[in-house]
Structures are given as C-alpha cells and as structure tokens.
Amino acid sequence: MSFLAPLFLLGGLALAVPVIIHLTHREKKDVVPFPSLMFLRKIPYRSVRRQKLRHLFLFALRCLALLIIALAFARPFFETSSTSAASSLGPREVVFLIDHSYSMGYEDRLSRAKAEVAGRIQSLGGEDLASVVAFSDRAEVLNQPTSDKAALEAAVAGIELSARATGFGPGLKLAKRILDDSELSRKEVVLVTDFQRLGFEDEDDDVWLPAGTVLTPVDLSTAETENLSLTSVTLERDEASGRERLTASARVTRKAPADGAPLTSRISLEIDGRSLQTKPVELEPDTSATIGFDPVTVPAGEARGTIRLEEDALPQDNVYHFVLSPGQALLVLNLEEGARRTRRSFYVERALEIGDRPSFRTASKVLSQLRASDLSGTDVVILNDVPSLPAAPAGLLSEFVKKGGGLVVVLGESSARNSFAEGASELFPAALGGVVDRARDWGGTLSYLDYGSPVFEVFNAPHSGDFSGAKFFRYRAFDSAVSGGVLARFDDGVPALVEHRLGSGRVLVWTSTLDTFWNDLARQPVFLPFMHQLVKHAASYAEASSWHTVGEVLDVERYLAMVLEGESEDDSPGRSFDLVVTAPSSRKIILPRTEERALLPLEEQGFYDIRRAGTGGAASSSSVAVNLDTAESDLSRLDPEELVASVTFRGTGAPGSGGPGIEGPGDSREAQEGRQGYWWFLLSGALLLLASETLLSNRLSMTAR
Amino acid sequence: MARRSDRVDPATGGDRLYRFVDPHVLARISNLSLLARSVVEGFISGLHRSTYLGRSVDFAEHRAYMPGDDIRRIDWRLFARTDRFYVKEFEADTNTSFTLLLDVSRSMSFGSEGLTKLDYARFLAASLAVFSQKQRDRIGIVTFDEDIVDFVPPSAKHLEIVLHTIDRVTSQKPSDYRRPLLKVAEAIHRRGIVVLISDLYDEPEAILDAVKGLRYKGNDLIVFHVLDPAELKFPYAEAASYQDLETGLAVPVIPEYLRDEYRSLVKQHVEKLTRSLGDNQIDYSLLDTSMPLDYALFHYLASRERLTRTR
What we know:
The complex is a heterodimer of chains A (about 700) and B (about 300). Chain A has about 700 residues and is an alpha/beta fold. Chain A has 5 domains: about 1-75 and about 675-705, no CATH class; about 80-225 and about 635-650, von Willebrand factor, type A domain (Rossmann fold, 3-Layer(aba) Sandwich), CATH 3.40.50.410; about 225-325, Immunoglobulins (Immunoglobulin-like); about 330-540, Class I glutamine amidotransferase (GATase) domain (Rossmann fold), CATH 3.40.50; about 550-630, Immunoglobulin-like. Chain A has 16 helices and 33 strands. In chain A, the strands form 8 sheets. In chain A, strands 18-17-19-20-26-25-24-22 form an 8-stranded mixed beta sheet, sandwiched between helices. In chain A, helix 3 runs antiparallel to helix 16 and helix 5 (about 110-120) packs antiparallel against helix 6. Chain A is elongated, with a radius of gyration of 40 Å. With about 300 residues, chain B is of the alpha/beta class. Chain B has 2 domains: about 5-50 and about 95-310, von Willebrand factor, type A domain (Rossmann fold); about 60-90, no CATH class. In chain B, the strands form 3 sheets. Chain B has a 6-stranded mixed beta sheet, sandwiched between helices. Chain B has a two-stranded antiparallel sheet with strand order 1-2. Chain B starts with about 20 loop residues before the first helix and ends with a helix. The interface of A and B includes residues 43 and 47 of A. Strand 2 (about 30-35) of chain A pairs parallel with strand 8 of chain B, so a sheet runs across the interface.
C-alpha cells in the first residue's frame, strides 16, 4: 500500500489530543467552594496532575477515529493487480543504461559503474533479456537484447569514457524503444550514472518509460566533489616588430565544498608540445579566476597550443587545446590611373591599415602596368575610379575573379560612360550610366542596406554604424536593370553597391567614390568598418576557428580550403583525392573521394590531423583542436528520485500511458479512482466511530452526574 | 431530670432535652439569647449547682461572727439593731474574666450540611457566654478575621451586648491570627479565661505563636477547633475546581486521588495542634459541626474545673 499524500499522515500526531483530553480535560463541573486549600496545595503538584487514563474504550474510539481520518486524507492506494503480477512473475526485459560521459572519469566512477552492472548481470534470471546502452548526450545500444551473460559482460567491459557531456534524454528514449519492442511483461531499466544536474533538461520531462517499468537508479556520485577546470580560453593576436604575437588567457573555475581550504595549482602554456610558461593558480571554493600568460611570438606555419592545469580527480577538463594558424592577412591591390592615384586611395589605404582580424596589406599599382604576377597572392583588387579598362587587364581581372579573387570597382569622375572595354563586360552587372548630381538637394543618402549580406550584417544591431549621416553629392547610375544583387541603394533608388558573382569570386561595384570627392562617407565613423567588411566579403574571407567542441561535425574539405591557401580553387562536386584524418587516439579515418561531402564528427578530445591522401609534409595537412564541453565540469548532483519521478510517474496521463506508480496498462479512470477510493470508506468509518464516541461520552457524562 | 447518660443519638429520634443541644435544631431558633439559655439551662439542669460563696457585690446571707472572721465584713447596721455581731455573706464571685475570641473569617462561612461553621461557632459562643454568666464571670467577646472586628471588654453586665455582637457577626475577610490576637493580648489587662473558637487554618506554629501572647499574660486559654465534617472526611467524588473561600484561588482536584492524602494532612494538622498547644498548657478541642453543643460545654466545664484546681 502506498499513499498519494503521505504528508497527511502527520495528522496522526493529533492522537495526542484525546490523550490530553483524557488526562487533563475532564468533565467540567461548577466550582466547588472550599474553606481553605491549605492542605490540598500541600499535596505535590504531580500528585494532583498525575492522572490515569479513564474510560479507556472511549479513549480508544477517539484515537482510532483520528487515526483513520489521517489515513483517509493520506489517500492510500494499492498497486494494480496487473502491475503487481507483472512485478512478481515472468522473465524480465532489462536495459542497463550506463553513463560514459567524461564526468564519469571523476575518480573511478566508470569502473564502479561497470562493476555495478556486471554484478546485476550475474543476478539476471535464465530467461531474462538484457541490453546494454552506453549514453552521454547521445546513446548507443551495445548489444541486442540477450540472455547471454558473457556477451553482456563483454559489452559492458568495452565501454570507454567518452568526451561528451551527460544527457539523460537520449538514453532514456533508447531504453523506452527497446522496452516498447519487448514482449516480456516485466520491464526494468537500471540507470547507472553520476546524476549530473546538467544532464537533466526540461525536454527530458517528455520522456517516460512504458507502464509498469521499474527504473532503478544507481547513483555513483559522491557527496562532496572537488574539481578544478578550464572553462574558457581567450587568444589575442597582435603584431609587434613585424612579428605576430599571441597573448593567451585562461579562465579557471574551482567547484568544491564551501568550507574547503584554498587550493593551489599550476597552469602552463604549451606550444607544439613545449611548455613555454607556467603560472600558479590559487582559488577559494566555488570561485573562478582568469590567468593571463605573457605574449609569445607565433611560430611560422600552423602550431598546436595547449593550456594545461595540474591533474585532479577529473583530469579531462584540465586541458584546453587550440591551433594557431598562420596570420591571415588579406592582400589588397589598388589599381588606379596615373597621377591622381595617391589621393584617391588615401582613405582606403588608411582604413585598411587598421585591423588585425584579419590584417590587411595594401599595395598600389597603375592599371596600365598590371601583370598576371601582380595578382598572384592577391585577395582583393580595388579598381579605383579608372577612366577605362582595356581588354588586357580586364582579361586578367576576369580570370582572377573566376578563381576566387575579389574585385571592388569604384566609380567616380574618371569612370566615363561606356569606357570599359567590351571584354570587361562580364565583370559588371550592367552597363555604366550617367552621373547623378544631388548637389542641388544637398546630397543624397543611403536609404536601403541589405543587412542580410555580410557587408552590412555587422551594422544590423542598434548603434552599430550609422550610414545616414553620409551625404552623396554624385554617383553613377547603371543604364539598365542590374543583373546582380543590389546590396545598397541611394534614396532615389539608384544602386549604391552591387554584387556580381563571377566564377568562384565576386565583383562589388560601388557607384560613388571612396574618397571625399563625390561624398563624405570617408569622413564618417562607419567608413572604416564598412571598408573592412567590403574587402572581407570581396575576398570571401572566413575566420578559421582555433578550436572546436566535441560533438560538432566538421566539414573537412571546406576547412582545408580555408586553412591551406591555394588549394581552395577546386569547387567541383567530386574530389580527386581521399582525405585521411588521424584522431587524437591515433585512429585513422579515411574519407573517400567518392563521398560528396567530407563530414567528420568530432568525438575525441585533442588534435585531429587532416591531410590529403598521397601527400606528405605539414604543408598539405592541418590540425583541428577539439575541446570538451566545459559545462560538463559542473558536477552538481540531481536527486535521482526527481529523475525517476519525472520519467516513471504520470498520474494524469492518458489511459494506458501511465507509469508504474499508480496506473497500470489500460487503466480506465474508473479503475484508477477505484484503487484510490479507500479514503472514502475510511472517512465513513471515522464518522461512524465519532458518532459512537458522542453517544458513549454522553452516556458516561450522564452517569457521572 | 435527664442525665447525660440518658441521651441518645439525635439521628434516631433523641429525647426532648437533647434536641436543644443539637446544632441543626438550634439553627432554627432565631433568638440567640433564647437559644443560648435553652442550651445552658438544659445542660445545667443535669448538673449539681455548685456556686461558690465568697466576696462579691451580690449579698447572699448573714451569719454569726466567728473569731477569725474579718471584722470588716461585720454588718454594723445589723449590730446596731440586734447588738450581735453578724458578718455578711455574699454570693460567690469567681472574679474571672471570660473572653470569647470568635473567628469570623470567610472560611468559617463554609458548611456542607446547611449549618455553617460560623453558625456553630455562634451557638457555641453564645452558650458559653450564658454559661459563664451563670458562673458570675465577667463576659467579653472579640470577633476577628484578619483584624479585630468587634471588641466587647469583659464585664458582668455585658452578656446582652455579647449576645448581640454574636448575633450580627458576618464573615467577610480572610483570616489572620497573629495580628488580631496580639492586639487582644495587649487589650486584656486582667487575667481570665480566653476561649478561641476558630477553624484554625494556619500552620500550627503560626497559631501557637499568635495565642502565646494571651497565654503568657496569665490567661487560661481554651481552643475550640471547629471544622465541618466535609473538611475532615473530604467526601467529594467528582473532579472539579476547588475554590479557596478566603483567597479565591481555584485548583483542579480529583478527590479520589487526593482524599487519603488530604485526610492524612488534616490528621497531622490536628495532632500537631493538640501537641503544640498542649505543650503550652492550652486546652484544645476539635469540634465537628455535626457534634452536639453540650460536648463543647462539657469540655469547657472540665477545663474550667481543672483550671480552678490549678489556680
């Protein structure tokens, strides 16, 4: 028998009431006058008060009535016969859910989990079927339901610590599926985990096991945990004396009982396996600190970096890896015409001199002197108000753009109508039109910006750049409809910035000048970020991440194209080479050329090495740093009962969908109510008792008179 | 003449004489003087008159002068008429002051069977007063509770006043013995017989302390301890709050658990009083209000005789 509201059993304390009444609160009589209480008061108090229970039957009636009322309010119920029968007869379908998230690496939790499950496997009956499911934030069935204990033990023994975080949902869903498929009447789930609170998400409330399932939690957590973890790393890169420098800082968090003593540890910075700096860390319980390292010079080429704390009970979260890619400066070539070039590119060059992510390197050249070699290594070419574009340089630029280069065409006073050669027509989305003069109405403004494009995306947030202050006195119109995408328009509808894709690259046409001759945009604060975004978009620049997190899926080919310069031209659907990935555990993964996309799930902590099959050397390979989800470092414990209740108890669920607590399979509401309806009988019984008590006490009272 | 030995229990009928000393019958008589005289006459009628002749203001007879007689007692007027020497004989006068100390505190108003202790004490006091008058004593009375309420100094002519005082007593205040009795001791200059009628609700030591003053001034002290039968037996059955008549304090009491202990305490109290008062040559007598008054009168008489012998 169980109770729906067991707290009402505290009402049993009301039994003290009749006891007190019988001991102290006798029938009230009139006050009896007595000449003197001199003698009565001499009798010790306890003698006066020490009274025996009288009318024991009446007393028993009162106590019984109160007890029954308390029981009735506690809503007793009995488990259904079907559930009871199911829990005592027949073979079982058992699912062992074993947590192998990296928090199970705390001390010996995983080995204890294995030992616990091994013991339970031995206690399985001959006809019982069992499955082993290893789960973290995803779940995996290690074997089909079987009664072969050796196979089960082997499956358990093969479970290794994963680098993933805890999540109860996937494991419970998988267990539910297994149990749903089972034809056995007795169902049981053994959940072996450290019950991390972070692993229990709100949506896990929607997971609940089939009716009649017994969920047995095996709690491997310890009451007091002490854990030092690296929760984040920040890398700042700057340039000093022509060399790129790295300034790393790490956030260290200590979770420990509040009354713990301060802990001293050491944190070190390693580049390519060499420890460069070590610093002490002292932390009080439940505090964090940021440790900054001194700047170090970034080595040429790709380098692997690691920040490492001294090992503790959970060593996995004491390491943070990152990859230092070579400096990704964008080379910008300004093509101008003759003597005025310096003046025209002045603002552009000044704007591009500032910035380190990426940094820009600018060069200038006269258009007529452009050679194919000038475009090698160049990311973006700015054609800054040239009067005409002859066929030869137009061909070079077309070829450059098709291969992925970026071209920014700036139209101005010199860019005469129809002055571009016919060979250059493919570079432009439309034929150039005449000059629009807005000087008479005090200049036009930019009225439309495509915030969806990477150029203006960063200005979308409030107070993130104001283009409305810039006045455009002149700009050039296109003669006919623009074939490319218009990224910005003036207030009269004339396109201000037009994007035109050509091959792998893109051409961006800015219809006014980038100096102060036709507009004052160059004097606006927004000019600098605008130029950066414009050039980065033209160059299709994407910043390579220094690290990834376990669980992410890496598009290997794209990643390689990003980090290995000069090898990104091939945009064809099929590759002509295999990709070989070496995981941190030295496991080799080959991504064959036949696969349309080379996607690599990142499952291990450390460095993945990626290279093209058949090539050797560092030049053709790259590293990917993979770190753990730092949230898993928080070992706060969830009450197992909370989890059990949320996945097994459904008092208001639909018929036939209840948990084992009070609902059996196919229970109707009437049947449920019937099993919980004992309170009604109890209350009736209590009322009868109270009525009897009233009669009896009245009779006793009258007799006494 | 009915002798004492002829009396039977009033509950069974009793003889005519005895009913005059039954307190419950006496309670029906509103005239206290009549009541007292009825009691005393009825009582005396069974006794030999034993007045003492001697010096007194009340002339009794003449007798012939005998050598040795005090010549001051010769009746010279009679000598002048008869030329013989006669001496005057006066009715005996005990020369004793008889003072009643009547406790009129609130506890005396208790009575479980209609007759209160105060009523009983009044009857007793009146009877003693009348009886003493017969003995030619000077009679006085002091009523007291926590202080002196009425004070009638002893005098041969104060019987009516004493009876009137007794008639109108009421119980209103709690009792105290020390203070009023010390005042009485200071006020009575002439030695005599002092009768204390009270329920003696105080510690024996305190009571002794209070009456000592009277005793030390040479008075002969007789203490009548008047209690109701309910006070002696505590016959109650039901649990209730018992309220002290003097203090108003109420305590819950379950008699069945306390009765024996209560009786034992009362018995100890009485024994202690008997012993401590006896040690100080103070006559003590416990009177139950259901007892006939003649018992008290006999006790008084016995004490009186004994005191006379002692003197």
